[in-house]
Amino acid sequence: MFFERHGGGERAVLVHLEGQDPQVREDAQEFRELALSAGAEIVCMVCVPRHRPTAKFLVGTGKVDELRDLVEAEQIDLVIFNHTLTPSQERNLEAALSCRVLDRTGLILDIFAQRARTHEGKLQVELAQLEHMSTRLVRGWTHLERQKGGIGLRGPGETQLETDRRLLRVRLRQIKARLDKVRSQREQARRGRRRADIPSVSLVGYTNAGKSTLFNALTQSEVYAADQLFATLDPTLRRLELADLGPIVLADTVGFIRHLPHKLVEAFRATLEESSNSELLLHVIDSHEPERDQQVEQVLAVLAEIGANELPILEVYNKIDLLDGVEPQIQRRGDGRPERVWLSAQAGRGLELLHQAIAELLGDDLFVGTLCLPQSLARLRAQFFEAGAVQSEDHDGAGDSLLAIRLPRVELNRLVTREGWQPAEFLAQHTLQ
């Protein structure tokens, strides 16, 4: 409705500021990958060694003149800044360069618009785009007069700009109402999973760390996975059976990026809540990435923003096939709990170690013991076998079954409660010491 997508292949100049402050400095290589992911035809990258941005253009007037000459000489369609521009800076730059100007936030929003597939994903992207556009509407109407007076020209007193703002506010309210409904539906589904005692595990991590490839390898799914930024936008959930634990729900989520625009975090809150309501987060890390430590910090910052930083986290160092001399392994903390798993999702190496680590972390409250079941509990005995919880079986002199059981206590409680017992009472009567 509000956005006309270009056919692609736009000739673009990238402008990267070499700021001195490492907290606000962006990565030039990541910027190039973002532009390529958006479909830009990169003509060149201009690096600006300036750490004091100007209010009017962000860069100095000399650099603006240099960019104008470059735009004219190379027939450039678009100039992209690896920085956040104010609405006035965008307008001033477009007037000076006589071409479209886009900042880092607009670039990421465009990639999201291309990647969204589901109705929910498209709504979330449109919400973020409209909120971003709301401060930039003036740019689209600088060529029109505002209100006119005189005979025959007196109207309701609303300019085209005001009309657009009103329509935009109406559309924003509609989208937010729909997303609230989506959030309610997701919460209802999560309550259902909690009632069934099925743990939820979410894959989180920096964009292009290999989350979707790992998700496909674990669940035998065919979620779209590619060597590009933000290949996954729409969350996908699959059921996964783990030995010694039973079923879990595994969620593949949108990747994070350095200085992820706040508008995107807000727009995708319904999706990101899938992570904040999980029992365990699998933080997928590209072990081959030179700046992996900085990427880890950025992911933790976003997790804190959505209230998921207190959840248990298992670090998954992916892509070890690109490293020399690194074998699949589990690294443990001082108390023996798994802390890191090194694997290669692409090569399928180390997946069984990840299964083991997840089962250990989620199966903290594991029941291991021998139950004495009389013939009257034959149906419960069959359910233990069906759940794969029976390690061995014997019989006593009275003909009662002696089952060596190993399964999560929540699963034990669920089976016992279904048969009409209180778990504590059942265990007190039927557990052999």
From TrEMBL:
What coarse category fits the chief subcellular location reported for this protein? cytoplasm
Q: Which domain of life is it from?
A: Bacteria
Could you give one GO CC term from the UniProt record? cytoplasm
What cofactor does this protein call for?
Mg(2+)
| Annotated positions binding Mg(2+) | S212, T232
SUPFAM superfamilies named among the record's database cross-references: EF-G C-terminal domain-like, P-loop containing nucleoside triphosphate hydrolases
Keywords of this protein's UniProt record, alphabetized?
A: Coiled coil, Cytoplasm, GTP-binding, Magnesium, Metal-binding, Nucleotide-binding
Annotated coiled-coil segments of the chain = 165-192
Question: Which segments cross the bilayer?
Answer: none
Molecular-function annotations in GO: GTP binding; GTPase activity; guanosine tetraphosphate binding; metal ion binding; ribosome binding
Note one Pfam family from the annotation: GTP-bdg_M
Q: Which residues form the Hflx-type G domain?
A: 199-366
For binding GTP, which residues are annotated in this chain's numbering? 205-212, 230-234, 252-255, 318-321, 344-346
Transferase in keyword set? no
Localization of this protein: Cytoplasm
Tell me how this protein assembles: Monomer. Associates with the 50S ribosomal subunit.
The protein's matches in PANTHER family, at most eight in alphabetical order, are given as:
GTP-BINDING PROTEIN 6-RELATED, GTP-BINDING PROTEIN HFLX
| Function, as annotated | GTPase that associates with the 50S ribosomal subunit and may have a role during protein synthesis or ribosome biogenesis.
**Family recorded in the similarity comment:** Belongs to the TRAFAC class OBG-HflX-like GTPase superfamily. HflX GTPase family.
Under the heading HAMAP family, the entry gives:
GTPase_HflX
Q: What is the name attached to this protein's record? A: GTPase HflX
Record lineage: Bacteria, Pseudomonadati, Pseudomonadota, Gammaproteobacteria, Pseudomonadales
